[in-house]
Every structure is written in structure tokens, then in C-alpha cells.
Amino acid sequence: MNKSRRLDDPFYLFLRRHYCMNCSARLCLTQVMQIVNSTSPDIKKFWPTDAVGLGSLTGDIEFIWDIFYCPSCDEAFPIHEVRNQEREQKRLMKQSRRKHSILRKVGTENE
To answer: What span, in angstroms and rounded, lies between the C-alpha atoms of 76 and 69?
Structure first.
């Protein structure tokens, strides 16, 4: 059986702590595996049709990828979903800091 392992941005996954969107508990990284036959129409979800070397993958192929898992609320999150949520939080924090710094400047100018 052939195996295909996808590892998204290891620096993002392993060098940073990630927290649950629902309960704020620390997320764990876990692997998901799915076996797909190379002649199945489901192969398009995992392997692009224009990819070079698809001919070498015949028969059953085991696709492995990572997801975040929250042990306290027993929920799984795709990596891109957690990343988008963290980016949005960061953007809102920057906006909040800018707003407070502008208010501080306006307050000191009136004195």
C-alpha cells in the first residue's frame, strides 16, 4: 500500500500553542488517515488530477494529515480553520490597540 503524508507548516504546528475556539483549552495535534483506491472518484479530493507522478500511485493509497483536537470538548478542527481564527483574533487585537492609542493621544492633547 502506498502512503501519502501531508505536513502543513511544521513551524506553525509545533512551535506555537493553539487553543480551542469553544472552551479555550489547549489543542492537541492528531493524525487522520483515510485509505482511498486510486481508481475511486474520491481521489480528486486528496490528489490533484494534474499532479505529476500519479501513475506511480496505483491500488490503495493511505492519505495521512494532521488536525487539531480538543480533549476537553471532544471536537476536531482543521488546521486552516484554527489558523484563520487566530489571524482574525490578531487583527482585532491590533485594531483595539490602535483605537486605544488614538484615544490616549486625543486625551493628552485636551489637557
So the answer is: 4
Q: Is the Cβ–Cβ distance between 13 and 29 less than 8 Å?
A: yes
As a whole number of angstroms, the distance between CA 16 and CA 93 comes to: 18
For the residues 75-88, what does the mean pLDDT come to?
Answer: 91
Domain residue ranges of the chain, discontinuous segments joined by +: 2-78
Q: Which amino acid is at 35?
A: I
Spell out the alpha helix ranges (H) of the chain.
Answer: 10-14, 43-46, 79-110
Task: Choose among 79, 63, 64: nearest CA to 28.
Answer: 79
Q: What is the dihedral of CA 61, 6, 76, 71, to 10 degrees?
A: 110
What gap in Å lies between CA 102 and CA 104, rounded to an integer?
5
> Taking Cα atoms as reference points, which of 55, 15, 64, 8 lies closest to residue 35?
64
Question: Three-state SS for 54?
Answer: helix
Closest CA to 1 of 61, 41, 53: 61
- Does the pTM of the predicted model rise above 0.85? no
**What are the residues facing 65 on neighbouring strands?**
32
